[in-house]
Amino acid sequence: SAAQLYSVLGISTVAVGVVCMLLSRPILRMVFGSIDEDVMRFAQQYFLISAVSYPFIGLYNGGAALFRAQGNSRISMLASLVMNVINIAGNALLIYGFGMGVIGAALATLIGRVFAAVFILWQNQNLHNPLRVQRFADLRPRRRPIMQILSIGIPSGLENGMFQIGKLCVSSLTSTLGTSAIAANAVANSVSTLANIPGNTMSLAMIPVIGQCLGAGEKKQAQRYSVTLLGIAITGLTVANAALFFLMPEVVTWFNLSAEASAMCTHVVHWFNLFSIFFWATSFTLPNALRAGGDAKFTMSVSIVSMWLFRVILSYIFVLQFHLGLTGVWFGMFIDWICRSLCFLVRFARGKWMEHKVI
């Protein structure tokens, strides 16, 4: 199964990378519409180089998932740490040292992802690793394990794919609000990601922990650990978002935004902090418990419907009909979270998610 995971990832990420390289300009034009030619040229440069990195980030994610499934998150942490250090240092060197601009930023990302993939594959092949790929013949595609992998992977992939497409549609809407809104939205997204770290951490932990409980037939233990991990996520999100709420006026000064963009950014991040405390974990951490039980089709259905109905369509209504600007875009996202939370909490409480047979 581990070897087949690498095979599927290798084939799919290379295919997606090639498509993105061949159709880079039409894809960017479709998403962002009519933008300045200079912006389009820079976007295309970054897009082309980032497409080369898709196979590497795919292999890294596959290897990291295999280690987390064994209860060993230290390897993926080290790889991610060094990858991001290379990315940050590379950005500073290539952008400011060599004046390479957008190309420098993209190359730094590519180099970091190449290192992460090589490191995780090297660690995977350690003689003491029970999931190492012993022979190249193991990588030959086999129907049964691939179908078992895809039975979980395809719903999750469709869910994530539709989520990203929805985000692009919302980004396209944001681009119509002017330069200040675009800059404020970009910074707000970056800053809010920091506040979500506790929730993301528990999301990653949820899958191997709950998967191992259900694999051992311990359903009560799976429920107990799900609630425990969810509680830890909510506690961490509360602390992180409360800190960001009070520090935001200072944090926004780090990005050299205009006064208008700074005010918009601070405003939407403050709203984000409040909604994140109550709804982020139940929207994104809890469904990983359902996925660990093989309930990926349900999470996919809820996420896609909620994404398009609230985050996309409602955002357009808030912006175009009620003229709420950037705040309207973010409130569409918050209502999406509320809908997801209600659906996932009901599904979890009923316990049907523990009745699936994955392998």
Please provide a brief summary of the model.
82% of the residues lie in helices and 0% in strands. It is built from 13 helices and no strands.
Task: Write structural notes for this entry.
The structure is a single chain. The chain has helices at residues 2-22, 24-32, 37-52, 54-69, 74-97, 101-124, 143-174, 179-195, 197-215, 219-251, 259-292, 296-321, 326-350. The longest helix is centred in the last third of the chain and has 34 residues, at 259-292. It folds into two domains: 1-141, no CATH class; 154-359, no CATH class. It is mainly α and 359 residues long.
- Given the helix and strand composition, which structural class is it? mainly alpha
Low-confidence stretches: none
Q: How many domains make up the 3D coordinates?
A: 2
**Percentage of residues in DSSP E strands:** under 5%
Give a short account of the largest sheet. Answer: none
Q: Give the tally of β-strands.
A: 0
- Mean of all residue-level pLDDT scores: 88
Cα-to-Cα separation, first versus last residue: 11 Å
| Total of DSSP H or I helical runs spanning 4+ residues | 13
Helix content class:
over 70%
What is the helix/strand order?
HHHHHHHHHHHHH
What's the arrangement of secondary structure elements?
Layout: H1 2-22, H2 24-32, H3 37-52, H4 54-69, H5 74-97, H6 101-124, H7 143-174, H8 179-195, H9 197-215, H10 219-251, H11 259-292, H12 296-321, H13 326-350
Helix pairs in contact: 1-3, 1-4, 2-3, 3-6, 4-5, 4-6, 5-6, 7-12, 8-10, 8-11, 9-10, 9-11, 10-11, 11-12, 11-13, 12-13
